[in-house]
Design brief:
Jelly Rolls; homodimer; ten-stranded antiparallel sheet
Chain lengths: 121, 121
């Protein structure tokens, strides 16, 4: 059992992103079934199109972004919810001047991230 | 895959609570491993001491409350995170004049809620 403030948690740069970092709020060692993380994307930041081996259930806290999931694009802001199934390509692009923050819950299962190349040569 | 705004989801009264309701944002039918819900507790509301058969991973969105977990009491507000293991007694009491809102994630496992009687006779 614990109670903590999210701002106290270490901030880890996300290598696959731009101006993007992540905090583990409830880790896979602490929670028996899933992990609770908070992503922070600064203005101009985001993540390129990629897939994960696990699903995401997300809740937007503040800021705004354009999110692509599969072939669809959505403009999201506070209190929007997204469900991204495992293996579905998705990307994030911060819009506006505020930091984009969202909760992202993932199951305690091995994950791999793979960037999606749309235009080969 | 979907994107939705939390305010659009049906609001279900929580029978065990006072002035307390809940929205299912990602259901156990939609998410393969866990469900994402939002609880809304109006000023004066809350939930009495109880246990659940499953753990809770929670993120406070807005408002404030006094939460008891086991033998400890915490005053929580926006961006606080709580982890309540399965079987640990917990209660909620809204403090202040604003609605208390939080995300609560639970695994896709059978749950039962049991009220805790502290003073028998």
């Amino acid at each position: 059992m614990f109670v903590k403030h999210a701002d106290e948690e270490p901030v880890n740069e996300v290598a696959a992103g731009t101006n993007t970092s992540m905090q583990v709020l409830v880790s896979s060692d602490e929670g028996p079934n899933f992990a609770l993380r908070r992503f922070l994307m600064e203005p101009g930041g985001g993540m390129p199109l990629h897939t994960n081996a696990v699903e995401h259930e997300q809740y937007v806290l503040r800021g705004s972004a354009r999110i692509r999931i599969g072939e669809e694009t959505f403009d999201v802001s506070a209190d929007d919810v997204t469900f991204i199934p495992a293996g579905v390509p998705h990307s994030y692009e911060v819009t506006g001047d505020e930091r984009f923050e969202f909760i992202c819950v993932v199951p305690n299962q091995p994950d791999t991230i793979e960037l999606v190349e749309e235009w080969g040569c």
